[in-house]
Amino acid sequence: MMAIHKITDDFYEDSFTLLALHSSMEDYALVYALNLCLKSNFKRSSKDLDISEHISFPIFEWRDNSNDSYWTLITNTSLQEENTVRTDLFMNEPSFTKHQLVPEHKDADYLLKIEHDDDSIEGKTVKKLLTIPKIITAYVLDVDHLKSKNNLIF
């Protein structure tokens, strides 16, 4: 008789914090503000997070060697242009479909993923983020209750 081993969905366990950011800033402007406020060095990743052939999310990353942490900023929304033939008043205008990386929190504009071992970093980071004038709000998301947490494995 052979033993059967099953791999469950929670096989991938990684300690990270996920922060939701609400801001109307463009991604490059937000990265500039984060680099000033957090004394970080976020840079655009050479590869985007591709969910499908036409859906991708730009990634900005920073490795904090002094605190042994890895930070990733990613937009929560991606616009996909649709090529549809229309015969109405707006026939020459493109149409777009909006996709969310974490659809449970579709109001969040950006997600800040922090892979770390220090639990006290969350509160300090949220306080610093709220000092940036164009960030409306920032808060910690409970990753364990997200249905789409597999989208955050990259």
Name a few traits of the molecule:
154 residues; alpha+beta; TATA-Binding Protein; six-stranded antiparallel beta sheet; 10 strands; 14% helix; 34% strand
Question: Can you put this structure into words, describing what you see?
Answer:
The structure is a single chain. With 154 residues, this protein is of the alpha+beta class. It has a single domain (13-79, 93-152), classed as TATA-Binding Protein (2-Layer Sandwich), CATH 3.30.310. Helix content is 14%, strand content 34%. It is built from two helices and ten strands. The chain has helices at residues 27-38, 121-129, and strands at 16-23, 43-44, 49-50, 56-57, 59-64, 69-75, 77-82, 95-100, 110-115, 135-141. A six-stranded antiparallel β-sheet has the order 2-5-6-9-1-10, covered by helices on one side. The longest helix is centred in the N-terminal third of the chain and has 12 residues, at 27-38. The N and C termini lie far apart (38 Å).
